[in-house]
Amino acid sequence: MYSYLNLRQHFFIPIIIWLLAVPAFAQAPTAYAAAPDSTLRVATATERGSANTHRQYKTAINPAFDDYLQQALANVNTRRQLLAGLRTANPVSNQTRNTYYRLAGLFSKAKLYPQAVKCYLKSGAHYAYADLSAADEQLADSLLSLSSKHLHRKSAPINYSTVAQVFEDGKTANGYAIIVHIRQPVPGKAKVHKLANSGHSFITLMKFNSDTTTTTLSFSYYPKHQHPFAGTPLFPMSHGTLKNDAGYDTDELVAKAIDKIAFDSLLALTQRYSQSRYNLNKHNCTDFTLDAAKIAGINIIETKGSWPLGKGNNPGITGQSILQGKLYNTATGSTDGLFIYFDDKLLTTKQ
């Protein structure tokens, strides 16, 4: 097996560099059939609110390339060769853009969200406010240190002052972005809860700095548990608090580049929520996440469901709407300008 994998790597490395370097029009037309991608979904041209019209118009490349990319990322030496190919490739070719698409998906799966968004923006399929021309070295460092092992960490309480201080780092911003994260109680199903598990919704805010670093924080709104049943259907109201969700898993995510006005509005929203009362039925983590998404121009349709003794916005229904393409970018009226990531296996989950 060892010698077979080495043979495959040596066979595909020249091919991948050729695919990246040669302009799109000079390559075989069979490598460019419009088809869904098994690793990453970037949906475009979606009519508002209609799951039946959810379509993906995206250039797909030869399956051998996808196979190589997965192999290359598992080996430090082949990662370096992949990076060398990206640096010398035609930046506007379809193959280069598709490579960044796939890297965005892989970084998302690894919870390296700043790198995922940078790859998406560098793919060219966006309406971006960020200048990422100097970000290549940071992406390279992330690729070389990429690991498939990521542990879930318990979310720790934070206050609004902590959120504000993270982004008041004295660094000049080149751009901003937001990621909406949804963790369904049953991945791929429109279930509001599974026993005591009701899922979770949270956001990641990002500030891209002129020194090529990224300032980022993942967080959401929670009930403050004065007693074991606070924020539950039995006692839906509670004091509210913010928590750091950097270690939380995600089933679906939606990212978008935003301007400073929207970013400042998101900080103001966070401050208002931090000073408010939690209500499971109408002021919960999904309400916070959806309010943040709307400020950023991300609109998700059909987000409400019911549970014993209550009803409201929830991760199960919201995540399913993302899977079904029931969302749009306010700026475009479609999903153009949104980076949408989830595992395509969720689309085949039995309801």
Automatic annotation (TrEMBL):
Domain of life: Bacteria
Organism placement in taxonomy: Bacteria, Pseudomonadati, Bacteroidota, Sphingobacteriia, Sphingobacteriales
Originating organism: Mucilaginibacter pallidiroseus
Signal peptide (from-to): 1-26
Keyword terms, alphabetized: Signal
Descriptive protein name: DUF4105 domain-containing protein
